[in-house]
C-alpha cells in the first residue's frame, strides 16, 4: 500500500452496551477533518450536533470551551449539554459531529455514554 493510500484510510469502531437498561449503540468514525460519532438508543441518527473546541486564555491559564450548533433535529438545551460534555472527554482539536438519538438524558445515562464512547474510541 502506498503512503498516500494509507493516509486516506478512515478509522472506524463500533460497539454497544446496556445503559440504565436501554440498548445503546455507538459508532465512531475518524475522518481527516472531523470525528463523526453516532450514539443511539433508537437505531437511527437522531439530532446532528456540530461541536468545535476553542481555547480561552484567562489569567494566564488556557481553558477549553466548546461551541455547539444543532444542524438537524430538535434543538433542546440538554442536547447541547450532552454534546459539550461528551466532547470534553475526547482529546482531539478537530470538530466533532455527533448524531444523538437518546431515550433518556439523566446524569447516569450521560456517564454510561461517556464510558461507552471512550471504550470504542477511534481517535
From TrEMBL:
Native organism:
Ridgeia piscesae
Which sequence ranges are marked TM in the entry?
Answer: none
Q: Which GO BP terms, alphabetically?
A: proteasome assembly
- Which protein are we looking at? Proteasome assembly chaperone 3
